[in-house]
Write a structure and sequence with these properties.
alpha/beta
């Protein structure tokens, strides 16, 4: 393993170890919010633009994942239909509301919004919309990053009911390329996926105590087809991506 490869692994592992402590309380709060929604047959939406949208895909129809999660997936806010224009989209005021209205979010639902920078129009407006209709907002964001670049703008952290600070530096990348002034090794996706899966695991654990943990099985596991089919039938009416 080269020095920089080793440095990346070490940096990420150290950050995750630290977050086990610093995020213990807010993660417990996030799990409690989701648990309340689950017991009321509500939904948990996951939204992010650019690379942050991968957290929404991470929880969608996932082996070992909760079936009541709903990804908010709109091509123009992602990367595959045009990475450059997606950056313009996430900074443009007024585009998120009609996108979210498609999903039929209801009072008592939850939305997890991932935004490392935490200041772009799309995630902040998504949080505003959710709170207007009575849904709870959980943010996964970098307080250091959003504080450094806010310049008077509202931050996602200022709007959310629960804030999960990923502790990442401005710019996301964590390794210096000596003599170039460049940094490589972004970690926000790896950290975000770990945090969201840990919270979902906690919620599933709590639900399982009452015998009602709606968790997908891997399609290759025995009995998966029957179990997954029942879950899809139940949750498809409010998840356009099933």
């Amino acid at each position: 393993m080269s020095d920089i490869t080793d440095a990346y692994f070490s940096n990420l592992i150290e950050r995750l170890e630290e977050l086990k402590g610093t995020l213990a309380a807010p993660m417990a709060k996030a799990a409690a919010v989701i648990l309340e929604a689950a017991r009321g047959d509500k939904r948990v939406y996951v939204f992010g633009t650019g690379h942050s949208h991968m957290l929404a895909e991470e929880v969608h129809y996932r082996a070992g994942g909760l079936a009541f999660t709903v990804p908010v997936l709109v091509g123009s806010a992602m990367l595959h239909e045009g990475a450059v224009i997606s950056s313009v989209y996430e900074r443009t005021q007024g585009l998120v509301r009609p996108m979210l209205e498609r999903y039929g979010m209801q009072p008592g639902d939850v939305i997890i919004i991932a935004s490392n920078s935490g200041v772009n129009a799309a995630p902040v407006e998504a949080a505003d919309y959710a709170r207007e209709i009575g849904a709870k907002v959980i943010a996964i964001t970098s307080i250091a990053y959003s504080t450094a670049i806010a310049n008077g703008r509202r931050r996602l952290a200022d709007v959310a009911d629960v804030v999960l600070d990923n502790g990442l530096p401005p710019g996301d990348a964590v390794l210096d390329l000596e003599g170039t002034g460049l940094r490589v090794g972004p970690v926000s996706t790896a950290v975000g996926v770990t945090v969201i899966n840990a919270i979902c695991a906690e919620v599933a654990s709590q639900l399982s105590k009452s015998g009602d943990a709606p968790v997908y099985l891997s399609a290759n596991m025995p009995g998966a087809a029957e179990i997954n089919q029942k879950l899809v039938k139940k949750y498809r009416p409010r998840n356009p991506h099933l």
